[in-house]
Amino acid sequence: MRTKACAILIAFWLTCNLFASAQTSQIVISSRWFHPRDSSDPESTLAVIDSIKPGRIDWIYYENDNILEEYRSRGLEFSLAINPQIADSSGFTTKKHRILDYKGETFVAPWMRKWKNKNPYWGCVNNPGFYSLFLERTLFLASKGPYAIMVDDALFNVQLKGRGGCFCQFCTNKFLSLFQLNSTVIDHLTKAVRKNSKDRTSTERSLVKRYEDFQFSSVVTFLSKWKKDVREHNPRMRFLTNNYNGSWNEIYKVFDGGIAELDSSKVTDETLDLLYATADSMGKSQLFSIATTSQKTHSRLVKYNLKHQRSLLLPWDIFIPGEPKRYYMGVSEMKSMVTQ
Ligand SMILES: [Zn+2]
After folding, report:
1. Number of domains composing the chain
2. Cα–Cα distances in Å, from 128 out to 55, 183, 216, 222, 267?
C-alpha cells in the first residue's frame, strides 16, 4: 500500500514538473513554404499553428505579405530564410555570380541535383555582384519584420572542400594577389585538384590546403561584412544558420544561433547536455531537428527539451534524405509529445 502511495506521489510530482517545464520551453514550428500548396496538399500551416499554438515560427521562405500577416495576427515571431541560390534574373540563377568548380562548371549541391528548381546554382562569396544580390535580398527580407534572418547552407564555397573550392576569376585573382603568387599557381592547383587526394604530392596537398583555407576565410569575411551591413540598418536583427550536429566552426560562429539537424545517434542526455552547454558558453541559441520519421526518436528529444526548459522544434516539415516527400508529424501526435 505504501509503495502504491509512493508511486502515485512520484507520478504526481513528475506530471507537475513536466507541466512546469512545458511552461518555460518555447514551442517552435517551421514551415519552409506555406501549406496547403495546392488543392491536393493535405498539410495546413495555419491548422498546425492554431492547434499547437507555438510561440514562434522559424526558417520560412518569403512568399507574400498576407502570409506574414497571418503569423503576425497570431502573435508569432518569425525568421525569414535566405540561401546561396538567390536568383539574379526572374527567378533564375545565371552563371555570372556563381561558384565555378575547377572544370569551370556552376556548382549544384549534391543533394539538390535531382530537384527540379530553376535556381540551382550557388553564389560565390568572392563575387562582388553576388554580395550585392545577397545583401539586397536580406535587406528586403529584413523590411518584412522578422526577428531573425536564417541562412540555409552557410558554408557556401566550403561545400567544395576536397576539390579546392571556387575557381571563378574573383577567387583566383584574390588568392594570387593576397599571397603575391604567379598566375601559373592556378594551373598547378587545378592539376592537383583533378587528382584523387591520395595521389597528390605533398607540395600539391599543401597548395590545395592553402586554397581551401583561403576559401574558408573568404566565407567568414563575406558573412561578417554582410552581418555588419544588415545591422547598420537593422540593429536588433538576429542571425541564424543550420549548424549541422550543433557544431560551431568559425563560419557558424558569425551567427547568433543555430537550427541544426541532429544525427539520431546523438539524441542522448550526455550528448545533448554537451551540445547545449557549448552553445550556452558562446551565447548562441540552439534548436535541433532530426531527419527521421521515428516518433520514438522525436519523442526522446522533446522529452529532453521539456525537462531542461529548452526551446523545441516540432517535427513538421522535415527533409528526409532519399525520400521524395518531406515529413509532417500528425497534430495529435505532436500534441501528445509536448504534454507527455
Ligand atoms: Zn569564386
Report:
1. 1
2. 38, 21, 17, 10, 41
